[in-house]
């Protein structure tokens, strides 16, 4: 992406007024890297009205006739979406595991929503969901296509999310969630806060000396990491770190390659970053013998790819570059919201709750992310 083009777009948007803001964000962000999944808009340029028609990750056109009041969420990341946009009271069922950090989650935590499948992994209990008869089922990409079809065959309205591979994708999907449940303005406010924080971190770490980092996803004797095609790589890059596995190819094209001990040792990482227990090699060789530092990430927040993933970015940047981050002052969420509301109050009202101030932050964040990844 050409950053100068983004700045030019900002000038045009600011001159034209808030009516063009949502469209400009959608165009400059490029939306999701899944155009065949129908994610062609971040929904900020259309009024939050019903009925709404969207195309989901299965290619299915999903029509929601009226604002849903009872929603089932089949995975924790979209449960976090609902909490972060103030729509948690609509959730009547969500996974009981990995959602306990959400305030009041016990009211919707459903031990019967997931059952153990034939492969040993949890799968959606479709009969239970059908019995609940919700107005809408929000099913993240971890929900199988078979379960989606079973729910649709039973007459339920289901939206299946694509994979979020970047902060840009996360913000797009949060806005999509808001559109689906009638919380467009709150979703736009939340993503504006995300954009402001990403922008602040990116600016603070733009000129730092990047330490060499090994992102450890290993289990026991097997070493895995994250290459340049992953969200984790973007996280490291924005936080001001050099990912030693950036150019390592994955045998299965997943973005998470198996990596040899020789490759890691040759790169001589100064820091090991991990969302869980370290692999035996990382602990014994890199840390115990060679003295590499360790930074542990919040496993829930990094794996769920939702709004609070930005908290992981901020925390990682603060640990990697405490001096650079020392002068960063983040606006409190309510301050960002107030800024947006003030901008909206001073506009002609043509924007659907996504004010110029929030769009500027989003555009700048998108531009900086794109520039750092080139």
Automatic annotation (TrEMBL):
Residues 70-324 form the Fe/B12 periplasmic-binding domain. Keywords: Membrane, Signal, Transmembrane, Transmembrane helix. Gene3D superfamilies: Nitrogenase molybdenum iron protein domain. InterPro entries: ABC_Transporter_SBP, ABC_transptr_periplasmic_BD, PGF_CTERM. GO terms for cellular component: plasma membrane; S-layer. PROSITE patterns: FE_B12_PBP. One of its GO terms (biological process) is cellular response to iron ion. The chain crosses the membrane at residues 351-371. It holds the Pfam family Peripla_BP_2. PANTHER family: MOLYBDATE-BINDING PROTEIN MOLA, VITAMIN B12-BINDING PROTEIN. This is ABC transporter substrate-binding protein.
